[in-house]
Amino acid sequence: MDPLFSGIIGIVVMLGLMALQMPVAYAMMLTGAVGFGLLISPQAALSLLPREIYSTFANYDLSTIPLFILMGQVAFHAGISKRLYETAYHFLGHIRGGLAMATVSACTAFGAVCGSSPATAATMSSVGIPEMKRYGYADSLAAGAVASGGGLGMIMPPSVVLIVYGVLTGQSIGKLFVAGIIPAVILTALFIVAIAGVCMRNPDAGPCGERYDWPARLRSLGGLSDTIIVFALVIGGMFKGLFTPTEAASIGVAGVLGVSVIRRRISWSGFVQSLQETLRTSCMVMMLIAGAVVFGKFLAVTRIPFDMAGQVAGLDLPGWAVMTAILGIYFLGGCFMDSLALVMLTVPVFFPVVLGLGYDPIWFGVVIVLVTEMGVITPPVGINVYVVYGMTRKIAPTIALESIFKGILPFLLAIILGIAVLFVLPQAVLWLPGLMD
């Protein structure tokens, strides 16, 4: 069987299995193993599966993933996310769209102790949407702000996607984390501008909330203390070279747990729930990585990735145009595939091309996270949209799925503008990592 034709058939079959609601990890793993077996041998495929699954779960570098997920879960059950939201609300709630602005600001802050986009979206759904509905916010703005703001958890360190990118490319995870800070702040500001624009066009979409005096606002800053302590421990320690990302993850978990216990803000049942959710989410992520590796082995045999990379690299276009084409592929892929799976599949293909064009690998990692962030809110996959929709079934059942997809449009434009800013000003990404050298 022709390898190229087999690869095309394999991709179609994999997408078909995903369309039939098979989990992405299993769809990639099944298609990759069967395709590899047909092209090489069944024995080779049977050897490939257990080897790659074991290698993924035994990978020391990937141990940061369950640790950072646990850190986010403990922070959620300790009420850290709610206190972040209350602080942002004290400062922004009195202006039009202020509750939505407070929500995306709180999403950025919670991303500093979470690292997961769906987890951030789910957490802020339960905190922000009831308040916005209580003040008469439009369904599209309320749910769209939460779904889009949840994506900030992908870029604000610690980020699971950046960890995987660092493992795949051999880049410093510490530098990748630090590189994501300024882009996360820029994107948060652009989201706030997008919300202001929506409210200028339709003032009824985001009515004004309660106004607090300055003493009350200053008192609310105490809600940031837990996050600042943990963020300083994790990112500050890596920035100073005091410990590795894996050690930072461990210290982050100990920090969140210690602060929560000392302040008596987490119960035993909450801690047990944190462990259960961490186990479930970590296994999902690890299986997704293993599935992507198996499918990647199959694609490598078909030579489709190498041919595609050669075609892109061989385009008679300037470097920025080739990079734009690569990012366009990431955007289209993100519309149909989980962001982590997309990064796993495509980075080995495009990374050599990007280096050949002279782009910095740290910069490229941050930019593709921004592009795949668009994928978590765009149909048909749009995982954050479905997470928010699932949460609203309990707290605001009148919000329709169509309203959420409509609400993310202004934020998509903000992300595109943010990517353009990083193209023009790459030092926004590279300045902080440069201080670590």
Radius of gyration (CA) equals: 22 Å
Please provide the ordered H/E string of secondary-structure elements: HHHHHHHHHHHHHHHHHHHHHHH
Low-confidence stretches: none
Mean pLDDT: 83
Strand content: under 5%
Largest sheet: none
What is the percent of helical residues?
over 70%
Query: Would you count the extended β strands for me?
Result: 0
Shape: globular
Structural class comes to mainly alpha
Tally of individual helices: 23
Q: How far do the termini sit from each other?
A: 50 Å
Structural overview:
The chain is mainly α and 437 residues long. Helices cover 77% and strands 0% of the residues. It has 23 helices and no strands. Helix 4 packs antiparallel against helix 15, helix 17 packs parallel to helix 19 and helix 19 runs antiparallel to helix 22. The termini are far apart. The model has no long low-confidence stretch (mean pLDDT 83).
Characteristic terms for this protein:
mainly alpha, 437 residues, 23 helices
Question: What's the helix and strand layout?
Answer:
Blueprint: H1 3-19, H2 24-39, H3 42-57, H4 64-77, H5 80-92, H6 98-111, H7 117-134, H8 139-150, H9 160-169, H10 173-179, H11 181-201, H12 214-220, H13 225-239, H14 245-262, H15 268-302, H16 304-313, H17 319-334, H18 339-356, H19 361-375, H20 383-395, H21 401-407, H22 409-424, H23 427-434
Helix pairs in contact: 1-2, 1-15, 2-3, 2-15, 3-15, 4-14, 4-15, 5-6, 6-7, 6-8, 6-11, 7-8, 7-20, 8-20, 8-21, 9-18, 9-19, 10-23, 11-22, 13-14, 15-18, 16-18, 17-18, 17-19, 18-19, 19-22
